[in-house]
Amino acid sequence: MNSQVNVSVSPGAAAVAYSAALDVIAAAEPDVAAAIAGELASQRRQLKLIASENYASPAVLLAMGNWLSDKYAEGTIGHRLYAGCEMVDRVESIAAGHARALFGAEHAYVQPHSGIDANLVAFWAILARRVEAPALGAAGAQHVNDLADDAWERLRRDLHSQRMLGMALDAGGHLTHGFRPNISGKLFEQASYGTDPETGLLDYDAIAAQAREFRPLVLLAGYSAYPRTPDYRVLREIADEVGATLMVDMAHFAGLVAGGVLTGDLNPVPHADIVTSTTHKSLRGPRGGFVLCTSEYAPFVDKGCPMVLGGPLPHVMAAKAVAFAEARQPSFAAYASAVLANARALADGLLRRGARLVTGGTSNHIVLIDVAASFGLTGRQAEAALLEAGVVTNRNSVPRDQNGAWYTSGIRLGTPALTTLGLGPGEMDEIAGIITAALRATAPATVTAKAKYTLDDPVAAQCRARCADLLSRHPLYPGIQL
Ligand SMILES: Cc1ncc(COP(=O)(O)O)c(C=O)c1O
């Protein structure tokens, strides 16, 4: 990996560690060892433009493969339901301390096993703080177990009749932001805000008007596929005006906050009551989640386990601590700036070659191509054709998508992973050329086909060769030969 943007381990040490680890695993189950080696080979073959993926450092990955995994530690630091948790306390304290320092947060909770779990912890913390605590106070009770049956039934109903206002899915919001297939949609009465049909941008006056009308308990911001940077100061003002808790899910862009390229009104941490995140996307850590919050919400967030989480994963918290420590290095700020510069170069290269982009460009790590408007393809056809051409992406809805959530009209691209490998703006322009060449050589198999397509073989072969050339200049985990 490029030493400028990455991680501090000698390739030789990582090579020895992995070949020894795979020998040990192979002795127990050779097929699993083969699959692990196969995954590295597969990742080395493809140009990874999936906006939610990255390459964690060997130190992060190795911190997960050890005996911390064997320990049960329900509860929080210093308050566990099991004896013998000194080392788990130590690991969790290190991770939480790094997270607080990295993001300037009053409190950090690093147990959530994933982004979905971090959101669940936040939802229940808000409900506990805003609905349950006042009900307990009114009844003169300390604990839910102290409530009489009728008071408990009233509280249960109140907990399930709250409102959430979040970003619409086809505007780039996430399923966990109050949509029916997810528990959040079953728990909350939800309304969603979209984007301006002309510009594709958030319209804060429209959000404010909707909030005044809907009066949500939770105003939820954050996105998976919005290529711009919301203004959290304005969202905070809207939340305050209607008495809502402002929650921001920064799962996608936490690395850009950590690296100091999203600051002031573009940094959610100083503005929101609760911020949730994953650790494995732009932040380049292990798969996992965490929650940041004000001290007002801290006691409620800390009850995440066993409220909605199973026992903590101490080995993953160790890897989070390593990732947060890496993100506090100056090299991570350089990485975050490079992610942004690369996304701009990719967007410019696509626009110059005639592609239509949602919002007309990007100001974060995401570029969303409208492949229906640009190339007459569904997202599903474009995703498959690009994979054949050597580029891994994922299909995504665009605002007011005519092809529905399965086939979609968009392709989402992101630069965190290739930036970790050390690719720069010139190479992003080359990639824009590969993508447009492949999509121009793709056509729906029939007039009505939404999945089947044809791709010109010589063009696909040429694209694969260009991808292989780029990857050979920026090898993944150099030195590790399995
Ligand atoms: C905004 C947002 N929140 C939450 C999640 C869920 O993260 P996880 O897959 O770790 O549960 C995602 C993942 O795609 C996301 O983009």
Give a description of the structure.
- There is one protein chain.
- With 482 residues, the protein is α/β, with parallel strands linked by helices.
- It folds into 2 domains: 69-327, Type I PLP-dependent aspartate aminotransferase-like (Major domain) (Aspartate Aminotransferase, domain 2), CATH 3.40.640; 331-473, Aspartate Aminotransferase, domain 1.
- Helices cover 48% and strands 12% of the residues.
- The protein is built from 20 helices and 16 strands.
- The strands form 5 sheets. Strands 4-10-9-8-7-5-6 form a 7-stranded mixed sheet, sandwiched between helices.
- Strand 15 (442-444) and strand 16 (453-455) form a beta hairpin.
- Helix 4 (86-103) packs parallel to helix 13 (314-327) and helix 14 runs parallel beside helix 19.
- The longest helix is centred in the N-terminal third of the chain and has 25 residues, at 115-139.
- The protein is globular, with a radius of gyration of 23 Å.
- The chain starts with 10 loop residues before the first helix and ends in a 9-residue tail after the last helix.
- Residues 1-8 have low confidence and may be disordered.
- Pyridoxal-5'-phosphate (PLP) binds next to helix 5.
- Pyridoxal-5'-phosphate binds at residues 52, 114-116, 174, 176, 222, 224, 249, 251-252, 278, 289.
